[in-house]
Batch of 2 targets.
Target 1
Amino acid sequence: MYKNFKDHLAKELDSIKEAGLYKNERVIVTPQSADIKVEGNDGEVLNFCANNYLGLADNSRLIEAAREAMENRGYGMSSVRFICGTQDLHKQLEKAISDYFKTEDTILYAACFDANGGLFEPLFSEEDAIISDSLNHASIIDGVRLCKAKRFRYANADMEDLERCLKEADNQGCRFKIIATDGVFSMDGNVAPMDKICALAEKCGALVMVDESHSAGVVGPTGHGVAEQFDCYGKIDIFTGTLGKAFGGAMGGFTTGPKEVIDMLRQRSRPYLFSNSVAPSIVGASLEMFKMLKESNELNAKLKENVNYFREKMLAAGFDIKPTQSAICAVMLYDAKLSQEFAAEMQKEGIFVTGFYYPVVPKGQARIRVQLSAAHEREHLDRAVDAFIKVGRKLGVLNK
């Protein structure tokens, strides 16, 4: 039987390649950092496509904390939390996350994909409604699909459309309503207008959930995310997020919010109940990371300087850049094959970027997504801009 299935898969893969949509993985042979070595590349390249927003992925202090935690608490837990997979470190990290987001309690997951996937089904039923932004991450979409609640979708950051959905949910007699949104939308880099969302939620009697994966550590006066940026503490009910981006870049996710919500997730959230606990090394390093962020705001301040500098230089060069308030800078190319060719040419110039195209972004919206980091120095940014200009002229993206 596999012969027929194999032929089917081969045809599907060939069609993906012919459409210019095939995704190749490039192998890094060094730690994640601002400058890395890639298999098959001579010398180092500058990395502008990692979620390493605060530059902590290879931080020596975090590495030492991970090593110490592994020596004192072991390599892995070999169990889920409610059986024998909870250590004191897990509880300490959950408290640290709660303190950071000013919430009552926190639950850890293996990844934010699991946090979002396990959020809605334990809390809501067919009597309720989930109103989701059209550009929400796939993990939120999958989490909503696993829930029996009624589903509504509003245009990205469009408050009129959100209000329409809220009224429609009321007209259908929904018991509880929750608005779900990314804090920063990962492909465009725009920030959800949380002040307006919270105002509508209060007006219409809805809960608010935000995924802080690309916003925590990045936006807000001190990088504490969208609640800080829009002064929405106490108005956002549930936060989800990751330890795999700004917060050290390893693994692990979380949901943080009211203690009753977190308690219900501990009882019924399937990714939590049926997945191993986060490894002690990751937990130990994450605890150290939160200590570092309490000590100084230097990394977030440098990240913002880098974003502003890079964006101004790219706009001056004539590139089509989507508006951004985050560390994500979308350089629009619109053509899928062009985005792949552009990324390949950039790698030849020593700049590591990735072309994004359908189905990751809508058809006709292909781009190079540049992600800035506090690990980047000014000379790194200048080299990247120079390479963009050179390749842009070569491929006809720039005319000057």
Target 2
Amino acid sequence: MRLWTLHPQYLDPRGLVALWREALLAQAVLTGRTRGYTRHPQLIRFREAPSPAASIASYLSTICSEAARPGYCFDAARISPADPVEAMAASQGQLDYEWGHLVAKLRVRAPSWLAGMGSVIHPDPHPLFRIVPGPVASWEVVRPFTPHYRAGSSSGKA
């Protein structure tokens, strides 16, 4: 599960669809509709929000809106109704780490998508997040930016 701090505009089609599915799973976890993934570290910051369910609903709404730009039709009815929420704090270190992680993934699976981003150095965050100074989040599982391939896979998954 990867719930990006980055704005979803940077995700290639495969990444955007994966984010939608994973955020829907996160919504199910945070609203008590599933027993799986309940201890996933990506959920910590949502659980710490004043209203976890409203925060993930806001997160999903932005993904749904972003998906409409390239012509996808994600089902907004799958987003739980919720009141608006205030932006959640996320560190600059977390945003920078995720940017490096995404660039490494895109170099492998979508180099033309990466080239289309031009010279982005400081990416925008997802609108749910307000960027504050600080290191990579303590809940992040930090890995080197190298692609990981599944044995027997011709496409490779970074």
